[in-house]
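Cross-check.
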Amino acid sequence: MSTHAIVLRTAGTNCEHETKLALERGGASAELLHLHKLCAEPARLDAARILVLPGGFSYGDDIAAGRVLGHELRTFLGRELSAFVARGGFVLGVCNGFQALVDTGLLEGPDADGRPKGGERRSIALSANESGHYECRWVTLRNEPSKCAWLEAGLLWPVPVAHGEGRLVFKDAATLERVRRNGQIALRYVTADGGAAHYPELPNGSTDAIAGLCDATGRVLGLMPHPERNLSPWNHPRWTRMGPREAGEGLEFYRRLVEAAGSAAR
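Predicted model, tokenized:
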């Protein structure tokens, strides 16, 4: 039986079809599910091993990017999402999904009452890019040694970014140090040869060049770049100069996610 994934959508989501395709090509069965449907039937999570919050501009990002979606998830599905992770489920948030994921508090773990520590109590946030405008380009990521063990540490891979609020910031130095100590820094922006990134290779000014963050279990991961936009060798604008490639590097990202979720279920 294949690993089942839910791709959650709502008003303004626009990357759900690419994400569903990435999961299916990665070996999962995947369904698109509206947020309201999941709120009405949270037991649908019981059949899934992966929940993905895809990119887009949920609710127009009218208050702040991902804020309304994060509030809805926290308010109506907070305990259910915490329970999903506690029993071995994987949650992925990409771009706008990462912004919403940060707001839910899932990356920081549950409160004493079982609800994620999100909203105004969160100690991490995604803020406006340092450049002051929307950034859309290809960047290089490096997988860091982290609790997210299904990512091959040290691997460099190209992936596109497209966001206006992707600068990861922390409440204080102690929070950043805790995240480092806990092995929650999963991905960093680097130069093509793995060196320290500065603008434009670091597109948003994110603290410590962090591109992706996981929770303490390694099963909840958020990242600003879009792996689902690099599934084919021809997705990269310089594909003719990159040598033979069987697939875009983003496909391996989803393959590993599906494999990890499937292995955890056994």
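Residues 67-86 form the longest helix (20 residues). The longest strand covers residues 135-143. Passed to J.P. for a second look.
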